Amino acid sequence: MDLEKLERESRKITADIIERSAVKKGQIFVLGLSSSEVAGGLIGKNSNLEVGEVIVKTIMEELAATGVYLAVQGCEHLNRALVIEREAAERKNLEIVNVLPTLHAGGSGQLAAFKFMDDPVEVEEVVAHAGIDIGDTFIGMHVKRVQVPLVPLQRELGGAHVTALASRPKLIGGARAKYVQDPIRKF
């Protein structure tokens, strides 16, 4: 696998979704990642630590300038718990749980997050404002309502399908109501 190409493409996808999702400083951006899929295998069958490290490090670098927190979703063996910086967990009053990810329970993305974050912890759940799903890991459970699907300019990363979500406030009020302009979808 060409890791330099993987980094370039990860950066391009992330920058695209950060811009179009209108995620703001202090909000949470969730990553679902199947390194197995990126490497051309089946989800959960061939976790690749090197692939996870390249992707997570690149996304962290892209988010660093924005002040947005990254939360990395684990696999079903950890009930989709997420790795996030302790400061974010405490600031957002998230439930910290006691588990350390492994390559096949949590996955390469979570191991990379533990390696590159300053003070990582696992939390049971988050309410993110946007995120990227690399390899069909289904991040929707961690993105706040109302979810808005974003089609990335690049729909594949290695062998993995890539999707993304943003969120917007609920529209209430009915036919007579007026709304603030939506920064994601202009209506």
Automatic annotation (TrEMBL):
<comment type="similarity">
    <text>Belongs to the UPF0340 family.</text>
</comment>
<dbReference type="Pfam" id="PF04260">
    <property type="entry name" value="DUF436"/>
</dbReference>
<protein>
    <recommendedName>
        <fullName>UPF0340 protein DDV21_009615</fullName>
    </recommendedName>
</protein>
<dbReference type="InterPro" id="IPR028345">
    <property type="entry name" value="Antibiotic_NAT-like"/>
</dbReference>
<dbReference type="InterPro" id="IPR006340">
    <property type="entry name" value="DUF436"/>
</dbReference>
